[in-house]
Amino acid sequence: MAEKHKTEWPVLVGRATGILVLVGGILLAASLCNATTPSENAVPNIFDPRSTPAESIYHLSRFVLAITGLIFLVVFSLLAYVVVKFRSRTVDATSEPAQVYGSTQIELAWTIIPTLIVFVLFLATARVIHAIQDTPKPATAVEVTAIGHQFWWEFRYPALGIVTANELHVPVSDPAHPTPTFLKLLSADTDHSFWVPQLAGKTDLIPNRLNETWIDPHRTGVFLGQCAQYCGTQHAKMLLRVSVESAEDFAAWVSTQKQPAIQDEREIAGKQVFETTACVNCHAVAGTNAKGHFGPDLTHLMSRRTIAAGAAENTRENLRLWIQNPDAIKPGSLMPAMKLSDVDLDALVRYLETLQ
Amino acid sequence: MSSDAMALQTAEVGGARPWVQTLHEWVTTVDHKRLGILYILFALLFLVIGGIEATIIRIQLMRPHNDFVSPQVFNRMFTMHGTTMIFFVIMPVMFGFANYLVPLMIGARDMAFPRLNAFSFWLTAFGGCLLYFSLIGGSGLYGAGNAPDVGWWAYAPLTSRAFSPGHSSDYWTIALLVSGFGSIGTAINIIATILSMRCPGMTLSRMPLLAWLNLVMAGLVLITITPLSAAQIMLLVDRYLGGHFFDTQAGGSAALWMHFFWIFGHPEVYILVIPAFAFASEIIPVFSRKPIFGYPVMVGATVAIAFVSLSVWAHHMFSIGMSSYSNSFFVLTTMVIAVPTGIKIFNWLGTMWGGKIQFKIPMLFCIGFLFQFLIAGLTGIMQGAAPFDWQLTGSYFVVAHFHYVIVGGILFALFAAFYYWFPKITGRMLNETLGKLHFWLFLIGFHMTFDTMHIPGVLGMPRRIYTYEPGRGWDIWNLIVTIGAFIQGVAILVFVANLIFSYLRGPKAGNDPWDAWTLEWSVSSPPPAYNFASIPTVASRRPLWDQKHPEDPDSRYE
């Protein structure tokens, strides 16, 4: 019995250090992972913020991590000390230790100190909640209405008369002349959640309810996110890209998007396929008879880098595959297989490719 | 009641009995010990099923764009895994231990309502079977014969008939409704037993902490299963009688369901964890050779946790767009609950302080529980800070956090309870070598899986996705998580093997193998029918200590 106990305590100490090394290693690895990112913004790391709400959250999280880290160190050291120091020893294994029933002073101490810590944490948190949620909208803000669908994003710019899908374009915001983007969040069907970790925390899109969020990005680039509230079969492939552009680039994008669809007489056959099949029930192309609103607006389809809410690159092969057999890219998506002949499919894809 | 007595007589007279008769006795039993064992075996069965579902989830997520299962199957797997583990593993196993231990520890011969006890168990068992019958009888979003795929919170309007045709979510609803009534029955029974069946001398302030904590747990069950059941009925009304509570297409409110669900869902965490606290509060003193430190404070902290837990539910909903004032309120209540929880951890440390700690298997699991529950509490505080939670909620960080609570905290305490009370229940000791193997394997697997799982959450990986894009920094972490899950699976197999092997071959335990102090150790192992030949009288919180140390009894200091 006694020898057994003796051999066990180094194991426990080993375990304690092992766990410390593990935790440290994980933190280190997480930071390394961030440092060796293959391309900029490929990793949507919440600790690598590029926009005001995400930055305020980052600062709060550092404060919370410091306090919880300190609590961890104190309590873990106590636990390790107790386990090592008060292990049963050989010499006096038979007698019972002093029977202590409690102590009011100690109980008071470990009630009052945590209460004070909690109070400080609460105040720091409430301040950030107020700063993010109750920010007034400046007159220079870009307004966007984001509508969640199973399983894609619709973005409308009411003041600019633009409708697009899955890839949000916003201007970069210069702190001297801020042009933040304010989003109204709606849902056409089930619950969704708008999450681009480097720009802002999540806000849900809930049917019958108007939610709002805002971003104020300080650097150009493409930021990745995706739906963060389970919304049905293809929740996983409801991806989201936010393209933060310089004022000039954004203005250029806006002027392109405001144009109606290009009418290319050479692809009239493909246009006919589009307008005489079920495509028009769900998709709109501005300036044509296609006025469906159940699926993404295709007026400027080719200006988007991806299709199927980010599930595939926007290439000719993927367009063909997506029209003919959506399940091959996104099983369970609500886009039906169109079952076209090869001739019609080629014509249709060529037509879609004119929608610059 | 009499059938058990008769059975015992036949056993003595006739030797081997036909298996039909044995089965009949178990099915018709109203004995609290047998019902406790039935609850525990039922939960172990579902633990294995839920574990297989977890394994399927982890194989699918092992690498990006994996196609081990389809998205439809994956969505069913995480729905069934969550529902199974919460409602048909942890709750029943806790009820099982409460059933078995509470009467023994308070010096009673059975629960207050033995027939209600049997009824409650069979309702829960029926609920579990009904949930799995959905595999044959339901039809989900796709095709026929499907399990529910709406997630274990079943957020509206995904459960409306427009988005969930067929019957799969009906099976989910009715299974929870039925087992919910079972839980309410057992809760009433536990409360009545503890309040009215304590032996002479056992005042409320002399009750073992396990009884106290189960009393609080049962109270929480009564308060919180009720809104869950109400919400299930409202959902059925929506689906079949044209109600519009949650039907957003007809003007209903999706947020209403969230409130109903989480006002059940958060206290539910405490329904699960308070019995785990109860195990730790019994086991840590015995293996530290000291009484629990600050008994009245431990009771008070538990009651405080129960009360505050009723006011924190909307911290699951920080991202739904509540006002800044609502958000701040729920931040405050959420953080306040850390105080009584911290007090409990400090009191356990205080119990070990100055003791002579014996590292038997139950104590190893309890130390693991303390360590992991500390971390789970601290990641909980991070998520209690609402803006931080806007980033963390719905991500793998949350998944890691609550598995830290449920596996690292509750399951570790539960394993401690198995190793501690198995000798009492079966009369045989669990094998110590296999026990150590189980502990270390499970500890390594647990940390490999759930420490690592925090990282993809921080890197922006949402939960409930059947696959993910490569190149986002998530791949390697998911692979490590999956490997850890397999190590945990092996550890569970070692545990089950140990249960079977030790039940058949383990050394005899005797009445009191741990030199413990509560009443269950004063009777034989397994305890006789009706527990106590003559009802004991107690004079302190540790009646067996008084018996073993007549020169220095506890009763002198209380």
Commentary on this structure:
- The complex is a heterodimer of chains A (356) and B (558).
- Chain A has a domain of 88 residues: Immunoglobulin-like.
- Helices cover 40% and strands 18% of the residues of chain A.
- In chain A, helix 5 packs across helix 8.
- By secondary structure, chain A is α+β, with helices and mostly antiparallel strands.
- In chain A, the strands form four sheets. Chain A has a five-stranded mixed β-sheet with strand order 3-2-1-5-8. Chain A has a three-stranded mixed β-sheet with strand order 4-10-9. In chain A, strands 6-7 form a two-stranded antiparallel sheet.
- The radius of gyration of chain A is 28 Å and the shape is elongated.
- Chain B has a single domain, classed as Cytochrome C Oxidase, Chain A, CATH 1.20.210.
- In chain B, helix 8 packs across helix 14.
- Chain B has 17 helices and no strands.
- The longest helix of chain B is centred in the first third of the chain and has 35 residues.
- Chain B is mainly α and 558 residues long.
- At the A-B interface, helix 1, helix 2, helix 3, strand 7 and strand 9 of A face helix 4, helix 8, helix 9, helix 10 and helix 11 of B.
